[in-house]
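Exercise 3.2. Students should predict the tertiary structure of the chain below and write it as structure tokens, then compare their answer with the key that follows.

Predict this chain's 3D structure.
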Amino acid sequence: MVKQKKLQLKTSSGIKDKMKAPFIRLKNYIADFFYSISVRLHNRRIKKGKVTYKSLSQGTRSRNLFLFCVLVIPVLQFVVFYIGVNINSILLSFKEYDINAGRYFYVGLKNFKEFINDLRNNYVLAYATKNSLILYAIGLFISMPLQIMSSFFVYKKIPLSEFFKVFLYLPSIISSIVMTIIFKYFVDKAVPEMLRLLGMETVPNFFLDTQLAFPTIIIYNVWFGLGGGIILYTGAMSRIPDSLIESAQLEGVTLWKEFWYITVPLIFPTITVFLVTGVAGIFTNQAAIYNFFGADARQDLYTYGYFLFIKVVGDNASLSLYPYASAAGLLFTFIAAPITIFVKYLLEKYGPSAEF
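Answer key:
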């Protein structure tokens, strides 16, 4: 009897399980269906960036907090000292400082008109225009070829190339004030002694002589600019494949042909950067004149960069001169921007190109 009762219980439970099976499968199917929908919605929220901070893991939170702390300072510096300063400079160009009230007032285009009138009539700005164009031409036709040639010799590892690399790059890592003091002392003390030893009785003062002062400044700028150019050009040359150079040497290519037909075309993008930025340098380069003479340089030595620099930094600088300098800088931007874009277009279209 006991066995029969156990068999009947098993049979009845099996029948009940069979009857419940479709409902269980339906229940599981519905649960799986809604679970898949919830997963898809969750993934969609993640893709849309709607994940809450609380849903992130502790490691992800710590990483995001660290990245935020690392980036917040440079971002704030960029916003305040670049975007904010430039916006304030643009607004200043339309203002005038009232000494009695101690504040700025909007005056429209007055500063622009004043600067344009000075460009036409002020002989100081005439000197600045001439000197700025001369410095640009010197940089284009003398400094840049010297930098490229010097970089090529360093790249080819000629004897004493490492010494010249350090010697020429030294001015770029030492303070510009220190370098101008060293150069000025050398020109004022060492050069006159050398000229006397060579038999010259009357030795001029290179920084006070009206005919020699500006050429002396040009020589300093050519020498000072060699170091930075050598590092950049040498870096570009080092990316040229060795297999290309070796195959050219097997064909009997001379050093000059290697330089002109292989090296220059392959580093031309770097050259383009210098050529394009050099256009803007016409209006900003002060040629270290302030380092040599302070705010008391002779007017025949002025450049655009020095002219604007002493308006805001020199001994005679004041809040009333800021709007004038801002208007001048904005006008120079309107002039330099289209010229720079046009030069970039010409260089990219007609400059040499090479692929490897």
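Discussion points: Confidence is low (pLDDT under 50) at residues 1-11. The chain is about 75% helix and 0% strand.
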